Amino acid sequence: MVDAFADQDVIRRLLNESKTWAFVGLGDNPDREVYTQARLLQERGKRIIPVHPAAREVLGERGYASLAEVPDVADVDVVGVYRRAEHAGQAVDEAIAAGAKAVWLPLQVIDEAAARRAKDAGLDVVMNRCPAVEWALRR
Which Pfam families does its entry note (predicted)? Predict the structure, then answer.
């Protein structure tokens, strides 16, 4: 069922057409995968918004403690959920409540129930895929 959340057209559209990504779990530790992915997308012209309880500035962007605190969260194209799978559902529910357009759960972050809730709420959903790998595959 995980492959149901790996539609190549959705992946391509999110990578090509999105402008703003909120990264749940993005702190100021450059050794974390979320930092690497956020930096990669930022280098490719995306605006990134760090969402982390510490709410620090990361990669030159102001951080927020939660999605609810992000101004104009409805303008966020994709919410990347870089939390352990057991916490992903809460972040997905916050993305739904905030009016996000899409959620992206990276490799090994699998919560099919949360993905289904997001899909049922009208969000695009990508799960168990890496933005960097998918970006490389599109070329």
Answer: CoA_binding_2
How far from the centroid of its chain's Cα atoms is residue 22's Cα?
6
CA nearest to 23, candidates 100, 112, 117, 111: 100
CA distances from 85 to 72, 91, 106, 113, 139 (A): 27, 10, 10, 11, 29
Write down the pTM of the prediction: 0.93
8 Å CB contact between 18 and 45: no
Measured distance CA(37)–CA(131) in Å, rounded = 7
Please provide the DSSP assignment of 80-97 as one string.
EE-S-HHHHHHHHHHHHH
Summarised one tens digit per residue, pLDDT across range 93-103 is 999 998 999 99
How far apart, in whole angstroms, are the C-alpha atoms of residue 58 and residue 91?
19
- Contact between 131 and 23 under an 8 Å Cβ cutoff? The reply is no
